[in-house]
Amino acid sequence: MAGKAKPEARKSRKGRSPAMRDYYAGVLSKLISARQEAGLTQREVSLKLGMAHSYLNKCESGERAIDVAELWAICKIYKKPMSFFAPDEL
Asked: Which domains does the chain have, with CATH numbers?
């Protein structure tokens, strides 16, 4: 597979285009605001997800990427549709 370019979403955060980095920053911002709106701490959400207490802190800071299944579970906790976090446009 040498020489094949990675799809944009699979690149490291530093290797992504400015538009993709901005999009992901918007997703993280919405993740934080939805948690605060739900009146939950990072620790409470992490525990509801069955993750280590530092899990959501790393996600919200961009240190750890969120996969689709995790985002789906977070949507259920916050009572938000997936489209709230990941709009159709960059």
From this structure: 16-83 (1.10.260.40)
